[in-house]
Amino acid sequence: MSLRTEADKLLGRNADSLTRLIMVNVIVFIIANILSSIPGTKFIVDNYLSLPSSFSLLAGHPWTLFTYMFVHVSFMHILSNMLWLYWIGIIFADFMGQTRLVYTYILGGIAGGILYIATFPVLYPTGAYGLLIGASAGVMAIIIAAAMLVPDYELMLLLFGRVKLKYLAIAAFILTSVIDFNSNSGGKISHFGGAIYGAIFLWQYRKGNDISGGFANFIKGIGDFFKGKRSKKARPMKNKFQTSNSRDRQRRIDEILDKISRSGYDSLSKEEKEFLFKSSKEN
Hints:
Helix content: over 70%
Structural class: mainly alpha
Strand content: under 5%
Shape: globular
CATH class of the largest domain: Mainly Alpha
Order of helices and strands: HHHEHHHHEHEEHHHHH
Largest sheet: 2 strands, antiparallel
C-alpha cells in the first residue's frame, strides 16, 4: 500500500473528523517541538501559536484563540488529551455525528480560551504574563456533552470493569481541573470554560437549538462570501421534499436520543441503533 494511500486514510477524504483532529494535533506537536529545539525559533510557538493571557495581546494575534488548542510541547500532555479525545470522541460522534464533534471541540476550546483570559488578572493580580496551549478545553467540552447525552452509557475499563459515562466524566473533570488547582490554575480554568460550553451545547440541543449548526453556517457563510467574490454561479436550491425529509430525520433522531436519556442505550431496538448510526455518518 502506497504512502499516499495511507496519508489519505489519515487526513484525506477517506478520513473521519475524529482521526483528522488527532492527526492535526500530532503534526502540530511535532512541528512545535522542532521549533522549540532550534535556537532562536521558540518565539514562533510562543508568539504566534500560543494563546496570550490578555485581550490586548490577543487583539494583535486573534488567530491564537484557535491555534492554541492544537499545540502541545509535552509528550504526556498530548498523549493524555488525545486518549480522552479518542475514547469519548467515538461515543460523541456515534450519536451526534462527525461534524458536531469538530465544532464542539473548536467552540469548547474557544470558550476555554476566553475564560482563561478573562480570569487571568484575578488568578494572577501581580501583573504576570502567561500562555495557554493544549486541547484540554475542547476535549472537556466533548466529554461533558457526551456524558449529558448518554449518561448511562457503559465503558469497560481495565481496572474498574464497566463504568457509566457520567461517572467517568465526573472523575475526568475532578482529576484534571479541580485536584491541586493551585498548580497550573490558568490552564485548569480553561477546562471549566470547555465544560460549561459542552453543558450549554447539550442543554440547547435538547431544546432544539443546535449551537454547532449555527457556527457551521457562520463558517460556511464566510466561505460563500469569498467564493462569491470569485464566481457568480447560482447555488442549487433545495427542494421542499429534501427539506421535509431533513426535518423528519431530525425529529426521529431527537426521539431516539430522548429514549436513550430515559431508558439507556440498550433499550433501543436494532432498527433504532442502525438508524442512529447511519444518521451520525451523514452529519
